[in-house]
Amino acid sequence: MIERQRVLLSFIDRAGRVPPKTHLMKWLFLLREEQPEALGSSTFYEFVPYKYGPFSFQAYRDIAGLEEAGLLKAGELAVPADARSNVRDELRKLPRRATQGVEEILRIYGKVSRKKLLDDVYDRYPWYATQSELRERKRRNPAAPAVYTVGYEGRSIDGLLDHLLRSGIERLVDVRRNAMSRKYGFAGKTIARLCADVDIEYVHVPTLGIPSSMRTDLTSQEAYDRLFDEYEARILPGVADSIALVAEFCSVKASALMCFEASSCRCHRGRLALRVAAETGLEVKHL
Questions:
Q1: Residue 114 neighbours by CB distance under 10 Å
Q2: What radius of gyration, in Å, describes the C-alpha atoms of the chain?
Q3: DSSP string, 211-250
Q4: Are strands 255-259 and 171-174 parallel, antiparallel or unpaired?
Q5: CA torsion, ordered 164, 169, 64, 94, to nearest 10 deg
Q6: Measured distance CA(240)–CA(45) in Å, rounded
Q7: Are strands 284-286 and 201-204 parallel, antiparallel or unpaired?
């Protein structure tokens, strides 16, 4: 079990009641925003504007995992009697800074009503209220047409979606050859569903990816450059229709080409973006 899951369990264990999921989500969010020292350097949840304010798809996935492991009751934020000893053992592994952060958030917000809690979060963190069903949704300001690119290396699915929304991206164009990932949220069917949940269109164009057989011995920038030279020489001449499709995407709606690598210099999307830019006359912008 990793630290963020122990923090999640700590809120449930210390709440003094079975908390609604809306409360738990806001407590996790407020911990991140108001008690950052409690999190140390560990990876924590990131959040995206959603139906009831700040939301983490990863947190919901972790809740499901804890249910599958028998540490939470199915469909209820409560620890089963036969799992209490195991949960307490896990919570003893939490650093004191994290335990103190949880205690402080519960001291301030633990007994606050749902309405007051949501109103408070919406008023102080208005970005996260932009998609709420409880307030009038603000019209999203799309980014100006350009050839945007983004990598998800080092990002959570919530962090990526939030970044896309803040950047005004309306369509995510997946240019991986195979839309597969062991990291939650980034396999094709999952990312398509989660994009739809936050009103971002998702399109997969696998013909623009690089076959895994070509990705060998990538130990230096020079090796990446040779690979991308080969990509331009061997792959791109045969996928003119796909390039034209992406060029149309970028011209009509703020669209970002997505692949794994954080740096566009180490990803084929950098070369692809230049080819699309030549077709459209648009500027390339790496997010």
A1: 12
A2: 22
A3: -GGG-----SHHHHHHHHHHIIIIIGGG-HHHHHHHHHHH
A4: parallel
A5: 10
A6: 40
A7: unpaired
Which single residue is written with the structure tokens 């980014």?
Answer: 143
Residues near 130 by beta carbon (within 8 Å), at least 6 away in sequence: 49, 137, 138, 140
Structure-derived torsion over alpha carbons of residues 235, 228, 195, 5, reported in degrees to the nearest 10: 130
Tokens of 280: 């459209």
Instruction: Read off the amino acid at residue 279.
Output: E
The answer to whether the beta carbons of residues 92 and 35 sit under 8 Å apart is no
- Give pLDDT tens digits for 248-270: 999 999 999 999 999 999 999 99
* Res 71: pLDDT: 96
Task: Give just the sign of the alpha carbon dihedral 95, 97, 100, 101.
Answer: negative
Name the maximum alpha-carbon separation found in the chain: 64
* Per-residue pLDDT, 216: 77
Cα 225 to Cα 200: distance, rounded to the nearest angstrom: 32
Q: Write out pLDDT tens, residues 148-182.
A: 999 999 999 999 999 999 999 999 999 999 999 99
172 beta partners: 202, 256
Four-point Cα dihedral 79, 83, 84, 86, nearest 10:
-130
SS3 assignment, position 269: helix
Rounded to whole angstroms, how far apart are CA atoms 171 and 188? 14
> Do residues 268 and 228 make contact, with C-beta atoms less than 8 angstroms apart?
yes
In the predicted structure, residue 219 carries a pLDDT above the cut 80 = no
Confidence (pLDDT) at 89: 96
SS3 150: strand
